[in-house]
Amino acid sequence: MRDLVRRIEAATPADRDRTVDALRALAVLGVVLGHWLVTALVADSGTVRGASPLQYLPRLTPVSWVFQTLAVFFLVGGRVGAQSYASERAGGGTYGRWLGARMARLFRPVAALLTVWAVVTGAMLVSGVGLETVHTLLKLVLSPLWFLLVFAALTAATPLLSKLSPLWPLAVVLHVDLARFGLGEAAGSGWTDRLGWINVAAGWLVPYCLGACWARGGLRSRRTAWTLLLGGAAATALLVLAAGYPAAMVGVPGAEISNLNPPTLAAVTFGLAQCGAALLLLGPLRRLMRRPGAWAAVALVNLSAMTIFLWHQTAMMAVTATGLLAGGALPGLHTVPDGAGWVLARLAWLPVFAVALLVCWTAFRTYEQKRRASRGGSRVVREQRALQPAAKGRP
């Protein structure tokens, strides 16, 4: 392990901003842990259905505040996208070459996931697994892909968005919500509900534009970070307490309104608070990333960020299915998430989920990183060079 850490440290350029990678790693791991904690698969009468402890235990709502970290991912994506495109253009590259490289990194792992699950789905149907169970499992696997589609669309539009103020998409979200919740009852909810899907782009455009502003040299002062944190938190609290927005920052089965599907103004203001907190963490993260061991862990997560994101639900479902085959319904794995016992049991299952995810990572990580053809050096060094920016300084 010490040799691995030394190799990664030696392969990292001295001028690399490691804090950006640390924020991305925190965002990805936050989503993974959040899904594992608030997603339950209940085995009942020969079928498997989805449930959430937030539905039965509303006191767990703060869990969604900690682990719903998508805004931080879009913040980092906006900074990296704007900075890398500027570097590409400065080095004489083209938009097509830049976009092709970024899209390949995103969608090579998706192709592997869809291929595997097409085979698994066919096998389940042939073996007589019920349609409700198949639907539940496929929904868990495929629902995270909306995030990649939005992220890919914003990445493709980076040249147009790199100088856009985040106030413009924020204003769009505000007016869409006014139409959805202010005019819905008076005008009929059909068209206002459809109007809400504009926020899928506008809502995540806010942190993406903040990241592009960061790449241009903005957001450097702690005053700005504190303004985002305190202003976003105060606005979110006001929307939840006075305007009737849900307190949970993730979807809850059976709830009339979801803050994520599509994103609401409360989700966006909460994301602003998260972005402010992320900027305030830069100093402590910079000091932590000077430690070779901490940096090696962050670097390895970043090398396979999409693989981890895409396969973490499959890992949980694999453990769930194995438990059913081994001995029936197990607490925290197949039971209704309606009590403290389920929570404690689920916490005990998290290391097992992590082991299953490690197996998936071992099998599918190569689809995210093109294998380098260089003959010298170890695989770790070659992969670390794939992570680091090119000689021009592209992140």
Give me some keywords for this one.
single chain; 395 residues; mainly alpha; two-stranded antiparallel ribbon; 2 strands; 71% helix; disordered C terminus
Structure description:
This protein is an all-alpha fold. It has a domain at 2-163 and 202-216 and 290-387. It is 71% helix and 3% strand. The protein contains 20 helices and 2 strands. The protein has helices at 2-11, 18-38, 53-56, 62-67, 70-90, 95-126, 131-142, 145-156, 158-161, 167-182, 184-187, 189-195, 198-215, 222-242, 265-280, 282-288, 292-303, 305-327, 340-364, 379-387, and strands at 40-44, 47-51. Strands 1-2 form a two-stranded antiparallel sheet. Helix 5 (70-90) packs across helix 13 (198-215). The protein is globular, with a radius of gyration of 22 Å. The two termini are 26 Å apart. 38% of the residues are buried. The model is unreliable at 371-395 (pLDDT under 50).
